[in-house]
Amino acid sequence: MRKNSPGTEASVVAGRAAGILLLVLGLLLAAGLCTASAPSDNPIPNIFDPQSTPADSLFHLSMFVLVICGLIFVVVGTLLVYAVVKFRARATDSTHEPPQVYGSTQIELAWTVIPILIVVVLVLATTRVIHAVQDAKKPPNVVEVIAIGHQFWWEFRYPALGVVTANELHIPVSDPANPSPTFLKLLSADTDHSFWVPQLAGKTDLIPNRVNEMWMDPHRTGVFLGQCAQYCGTQHAKMLLQVSVDSPEDFKNWVNAQKQPARLDDSVSAGRKVFETTACINCHAVAGTAATGRFGPDLTHMMSRRTIAAGAAENTPENLGMWIQDPDMIKPGSLMPAMKLSDADLDALVRYLGTLR
Amino acid sequence: MSSDAMAIRTAEATGSHWLETLHEWVTTVDHKRLGILYIVYALVFLVIGGIEATIMRIQLIRPHADFVSPQVFNRMFTMHGTTMIFFVAMPIVFGFANYLVPLMVGARDMAFPRLNAFSFWLTALSGILLYFSFLGGSGLYGAGNAPDVGWWAYAPLTSHAFSPGHSSDYWTVAVLVSGFGSIGTATNIIATIFSMRCPGMTLGRMPLMGWLSLVMAGLVLITISPLTAAQIMLLVDRYLGGHFFDTQAGGSAALWMHFFWIFGHPEVYVLVLPAFGIASEIIPVFSRKPIFGYPVMVAATVGIGFISMSVWAHHMFTIGMNSTANTFFVMTTMAISVPTGIKIFNWLGTMWGGKIQFKTPMLFCIAFLFQFLVAGLTGIMLAAAPFNWQLSGSYFVVAHFHYVIVGAILFCIFGGFYYWFPKATGKMLNEGLGKLHFWLFVIGFHLTFDFMHIPGLLGMPRRIYTYEPGRGWDIWNVIVTIGTVIQGIATLVFVANLILSYFSGLKAGNDPWDAWTLEWAVSSPPPAYNFAVIPTVESRRPLWDQKHPEDPDSRYE
Amino acid sequence: MSAISTPIRQTPESWRLPYRGKVGMACLIIAESAIFTIFVVAYLYYAGRSLSGPTPREVLETPIFFTICLLSSSLTIHFAEKFLVRGGRGAFLGFWFLTILLGGLFLFGTGEEWHRLIYEHGLTISTNLFGTTYYSLVGLHAFHVTVGLIMLSIVFLFGLAGRVGSEQSARVGVLSMYWHFVDAVWVVVFTVVYILGR
Fold it and tell me: What is the pLDDT along chain B (557 residues), one digit of tens a residue?
């Protein structure tokens, strides 16, 4: 049996292990600097940038777990590197086999007991956070939202406030001294989905025939991004989420505006006629009109939203026209049918929809 | 005898030799040939699954790419997962177990050779059935073709309402039938180990590969069956109007999840235990010491087998189970890290004080140790349920499980190839190409799977055919894709090595590595009957006793 | 050619390992138990949760007679096995045939029950959750009984042809293990469906 040149492989192996750890940690920090022009002041949905109590609790537990795991990695990794370097076969070795050691009860006990202790600590820490988040009591000052997952958009209802909207959620900021968290009931109209806005909370699934609950109490205003995190079909990738955390004043104004029925504007009555006489009303609702469909998003105040098709495109007249005529250009596999309207009808319709502020 | 020789010469003369060979291989019941069939089959599907992965990675190299449509992408991740688990990883571990277990326990073949062949062909043909879906999954507009429901096929996505056509049925039936093959092979392994060990080989003297195959097979029996049951229920729903997972009729989507993961979690232990077995054979030989703590390793293996049955819902931390249920699964999941860690320490203990030889099999096993350590630690992170509420369904999980399946399991499998190829073929694999394969693969693996953790931490979910720019995910996806290409090249180097060495590798002889278990006592390749005389053993390392008669192991065990 | 040079010894008399047929059948039984467990879990989970349609209490009649038939067949197969070991081929065939008869009666009873449920009560596999889980669980068991009866019949035919003697008793014992398993499963299914589930 040939012997290999000692040292080279072992030292490269050793360097590799340590290097990878540093590289990953460093790049993690650098990740925050990777931004581009974005629709939100918080473009990176970083789980290590918590802005709400549940996300905070998760973050602190994560750090604790990471530190323990990091220590284990360093200790065991060092021992492995040491073993590979120190006990490598050298060309100068005799041909005798090394001492044949079969085991050691003390050592086995040591490296059984210590991991058990670590596991106990981790379980206790984890249990505490599970209860803190899942069994949190609802304070008196809550905003209640019912979120219903659809293939491939989000329906949001505020039963106490009389608001129905889609895809872009507005909630009030919560003052730690006088918390006003938002509690969500999560339902599904079809398959499994998952509500994930990393900076505000861990994800919770929306499962048909099941009611799940989650809560968040954002500590500062801003717009936070997320998306569906449970594969739900062809356009799972474009079931995006946007949560606007508003000041109490802004939130009140938003609610009042959303509560109003649709604006009536005679100059777009042609378009409104197109809307109400084609298949649009089978799926969509516009409050105060004949349109009461619930299969698709509520359009009463659709111009108050930044995007259409659950974040798949900016809410502009061109995109809107494209979406109505040929949704596959924007979101192939979505359940919006191609309406195949004449140019004149399409133009009038888009103008009508443009008044639904 | 001479009439056989004449028959062969006549056959050669008439040129029907290859047909005879083909016939021999198709009708073989020899565990060694079936083992090789399993392994070659798995390698072919490894390449196919790798192509599917590469297609996905090209699509994801930049946001809003249009290399493939969402429909095709969704089929790719479904087929990639299903192929890799059921038609690469399972067959390859069954192949190794098939080849090695009878040789290691001193038997002439498996307990049920015909069942062995039947099990292989069930698996092989069901893989072909799955791929036939690309052609035959016809159905309603836009719904036919390969399955696109993810390899877990969550209900109610698989109901007719959301999966019209037959694509989901190809998934269901192919996996169901391969499950029967798996149960057959598991039965064979268990019966061989219990009923056909050579004299003197008590269970306490069996090589660890035997123990790990035994526990793996036991797990297969109780873990494949829940999936089989769930798939029968799914077929009842889809074809007999049943309501097992019909949420409109009061059925439960979560029930499918429970049944699937009761299969799915022990399944990963089915895959990893044979990898542990390979490491437990290679590391001692190339450290020139016996395995450290053999009884503890056996106990840890059995412990892992049992505990693994109780952890399944850690795949379901986000579905809204109550805090008590979540806490229970946190406890069991973290508990399983104890016997797993013990194994890592024992391998470390084996190398400690040894004379480590950096041959290719050992290189792969050393990398396995580091990578499995990392994979286990990211597993602990995922076991902490609240941390899991952020990490699950994201690329962090994808990185974690590929770290286990590629970084731990596949690396051990590669090590096993370099270690036992000489035994199976009589030729050594080329060391130079082996080292090239190793280093290329290490670089590619780490480029892809180290950096893949980061988009997960930054909020990138899995199973998405495209993503928004500006979320901080772009650069990481590029790096991940580059690593994929390098791993592909490394795999090609490996395949080239297999082919070249088969024809012109150095002669191996019986025992090229100076090893200690029974398979090295016979010729390379072994004769069809394995042992002319069934051996009698007196220790765990019968060949050590033979080579060191003045200091046999039996004195110390 | 074996290179191992350990001296040729006689296999020590004390080296006895379990019969591989029994081990193999035990493995099959373990796997099948797991499948049945999942169907039982589904049955229990969905008990009382049907949104509409007939309930167990309304339509199920406890099949006491046919259950006694099936459970007695375990006894008869046990006797058949015992006689075969001692070489009593005639008695073996008699008890073996009785086993098949009793098993066949059980299947007939199941068929009769299903006929009543479908045509008198309108309960099918697609009616509601109860229908789905009931037919699946009982049907899975009946399928296993059917396969068992086919195997028993094959052995019976071989027996009639004089080919089953005490040398085959080990293999017959393996099949008998399977039959006992099928009966044990029925005890569980019976308890779950006709006692707990109501």
Answer: 445 545 555 545 555 789 999 999 999 999 999 999 999 999 999 999 999 999 999 999 999 999 999 999 999 999 999 999 999 999 999 999 999 999 999 999 999 999 999 999 999 999 999 999 988 766 444 445 899 999 999 999 999 999 988 899 999 999 999 999 999 999 999 999 999 999 999 999 999 999 999 999 999 999 999 999 999 999 999 999 999 999 999 999 999 999 999 999 999 999 999 999 999 999 999 999 999 999 999 999 999 999 999 999 999 999 999 999 999 999 999 999 999 999 999 999 999 999 999 999 999 999 999 999 999 999 999 999 999 999 999 999 999 999 999 999 999 999 999 999 999 999 999 999 999 999 999 999 999 999 999 999 999 999 999 999 999 999 999 999 999 999 999 999 999 999 999 999 999 999 999 999 999 999 999 999 999 999 999 999 999 999 999 999 988 87
Burial of A178 (0-12, 13-18, 19+ CB in 10 A): exposed
**Contact status of A29 with chain B (Cβ, < 8 Å):** no
Chains in contact with A, counting 3 or more C-beta pairs less than 8 Å apart as contact: B
Beta carbons of A340 and A325 less than 8 angstroms apart: yes
Cis peptide preceding A181, ω within 30 of 0? no
CB A54 within 8 A of CB A133: yes
DSSP assignment, residue C2? B
Q: Is there a contact between A262 and A289 (Cβ–Cβ < 8 Å)?
A: yes
Helix (H) or strand (E) holding A277: helix A269-277
Is residue A143 a part of any domain in this protein? no
Domain count within chain B = 1
- Both tokens of residue C111? 């068929």
- β-partners of residue A225 are A242
Residue B44 lies in domain: 16-555
In a domain, B4, yes or no: no
**What's the CA gap between B374 and B365, in Å, rounded?**
14
The rounded distance, in Å, linking the Cα atoms of B244 and A58 is: 35
Contacts of A31 (CB under 8 A, 6+ apart): A44, A46, B454, B457, B458, B472, B476
pTM of the model: 0.93
Q: CATH number for the domain including B212?
A: 1.20.210.10
The number of distinct structural domains making up chain A is: 2
For residue B266, being part of any structural domain is answered with: yes
* Pairing mode of beta strands A168-172, A240-246: parallel
Chain B residues lying within 8 Å of C49, measured CB to CB: 250
Q: What is the dihedral angle through the alpha carbons of C25, C30, C35, C40, rounded to the nearest 10 degrees?
A: 120
Residue B5 domain-assigned (yes or no): no
Give me the residues paired with residue A307 across strands.
A314
Best B314, B356, B357 member to test A by mutation, with max A CBs in 10 Å, is B356
- Structural domains of chain C in order of their starting residue, each with its CATH number: 20-196 (1.20.120.80)
Residue B467 CB partners (closer than 8 Å, separation 6+): A237, B60, B63, B460, B473, B477
Quick one: which of A335, A333, A236, A312 has its CA closest to B150? Answer: A236
Query: B and C: touch, per 3+ CB pairs < 8 A?
Result: yes
Which two tokens mark A95? 């041909």
- Return the biggest CA–CA distance within chain C: 76
Structure tokens belonging to residue B433: 């190409």
Chain A to chain B Cβ contacts (< 8 Å):
320
> Would you say how long chain C is, in residues?
198
Q: Which CATH number goes with the domain that contains A302? A: 2.60.40.420
Tell me which residue range forms the domain holding A309. Answer: 266-353
Within-domain flag for B523: yes
Q: Which of the residues B60, B370, B419, B476 would you substitute to probe the A interface, choosing the one with the greatest number of A C-beta atoms within 10 Å?
A: B370
Burial B456-485 (b: 16+ CB within 10 A, else e): bbbbbbbbbbbbbebbbbbebbebbbebbe
